[in-house]
Amino acid sequence: MIYQSAVGNPKPGQDLTPSEIRQLCRDGKFTGVTAGLAPGYVQANLVVLPRSLAFDFLLFCQRNPKPCPVLDVTDEGNPEARFLAPGADIRTDLPLYRIYRRGKLVEETTEIRSFWREDSVGFLIGCSFTFERAMLAAGLPVRHIEEGRNVPMYRTNRACTPAGCFSGEMVVSMRPMPPHHAIQAVKITSHYHKAHGAPVHIGDPAVLGIKNLDKPDYGNPVTIHEGEIPVFWACGVTPQAVILQTKPELAITHAPGHMFIADIKDEELAL
Amino acid sequence: MIYQSAVGNPKPGQDLTPSEIRQLCRDGKFTGVTAGLAPGYVQANLVVLPRSLAFDFLLFCQRNPKPCPVLDVTDEGNPEARFLAPGADIRTDLPLYRIYRRGKLVEETTEIRSFWREDSVGFLIGCSFTFERAMLAAGLPVRHIEEGRNVPMYRTNRACTPAGCFSGEMVVSMRPMPPHHAIQAVKITSHYHKAHGAPVHIGDPAVLGIKNLDKPDYGNPVTIHEGEIPVFWACGVTPQAVILQTKPELAITHAPGHMFIADIKDEELAL
């Protein structure tokens, strides 16, 4: 059995391979958050939509690559994540899912076989865990990890580029740090354009329409020390927020923090 | 009036802006190749497909980003290239087009208004002109430009990742250079992942299934000097070759070398 853990805090289960963790999920033996598991391997956000919405959504991702870096798209009706993890079944291999009908959360479930349809298409989207590991490796502070919290995330006033039925504002995550570390963070995260890439903003939150950093819309607030500035990255919550606004008949996502763990390594996402 | 010219050779018309060149195309006053025009501005390959094939094709591009770096996708039925050049009309603003029916070239034409449909979707795809300019600026040799020819291109044995109805082999372009320049070329072109990015191969053509560098499948052969090695990049001819293999009812492309000229600069495609 493995336990919930935060990125960077060694915990039981860290020595499991991605396929071992996916097997535990498949067997219903692991339903926790994936932060800190299989260090060095890519983790991904999941969105499942009917084929009728797939072009609009893929186009939305193409037009908004910072919040929505597409890592893998499953073939219609086929639940295999062929490119991120050949043989993996996205219906069973994540620890926890959310089922939305017409934009409303109706159920949390540990597998989605009964919700999967002949016309289902799965999208796996890059996640900030990838660049956070690179930042930690370079000795940069990642405050929410230091404080054992979820990263603070905020709705912004920055409109995504619409595509078909999908439109909405960007959600950002925030990590505070001193300016010299912010410069390093831009350099490091620029390499990971498949994991949100360089920040979208540094400094004054008001520029993004954020009124109070202590009141994030998702996740938890973190301490900002004197002399630190907030650094904002496009966040993988954006596509979910945008999808739910359009109220599709059926949408399935991972539960927050309960990601898909791929067989490829973080470094493979670096340019 | 402006004239045909090669990248890097100053010619009449080089001082025209992208919008002035597009206006000349729209007025039927320019029907030549665009190499060397509007230096510093992005040029793009064009593919127009019916909406029924658009998801498969966008997914093919997502899975094969080196040959198919998508720069812009027009909204269904709307010919405006909103992101590359707001106001530009892809039905009229390129110098020359090719019309394919069931995979067969049936017509070359200077505008495609009569072929445009309510369900047409246009894809604008990055082009090697962008990285060639960066290579020239760094003092690297670009042999086909030196010799006033079209770049040599070859079919390979390297399968693209299929998507829906689209599959086929990658086409590559080749530029010979001494090893120390090849190293520089990798560094420079890596920055332009929206213009084919780093090479896909350096050295032995047989590895790609290419038998004779003197007999390219497209374009012209170029001189390879003693001590030089061939450097191969994924080529924007790939998506066209793949599309024509599937014999869609209607496909429209730019005529080779007669590209769309965007309002954004090459540097905006650098990571």
Number of helices of chain A: 6
* Strand-residue proportion of chain A: 15-25%
Broad shape of chain A: globular
Order of helices and strands of chain A: HEHEEEEHHEEHEEHEE
CATH superfamily of the largest domain in chain A, please? PSTPO5379-like domain
Entry keywords:
6 helices, homodimer, globular, four-stranded antiparallel sheet, 271 residues, PSTPO5379-like, PSTPO5379-like fold, alpha+beta, 24% strand, 21% helix, 11 strands, seven-stranded antiparallel sheet
Task: Give the arrangement of secondary structure elements.
2 copies of one chain form a homodimer.
Chain A: H1 18-26, E1 41-50, H2 51-63, E2 70-73, E3 97-101, E4 104-109, E5 120-126, H3 129-137, H4 143-146, E6 153-159, E7 169-177, H5 179-190, E8 201-202, E9 229-234, H6 237-245, E10 251-254, E11 260-265
Antiparallel strand pairs in A: 1-5, 1-10, 1-11, 2-5, 3-4, 3-10, 6-7, 7-9, 8-9
Helix pairs in contact in A: 3-5
How would you describe this structure to a colleague?
Two copies of one chain form a homodimer. Chain A is 21% helix and 24% strand. Chain A has 271 residues and is an alpha+beta fold. Chain A has two domains: 106 residues, 3-Layer(aba) Sandwich (PSTPO5379-like); 111 residues, PSTPO5379-like fold (2-Layer Sandwich). The N terminus of chain A is likely disordered. At the A-B interface, helix 2 of A face helix 2 of B.
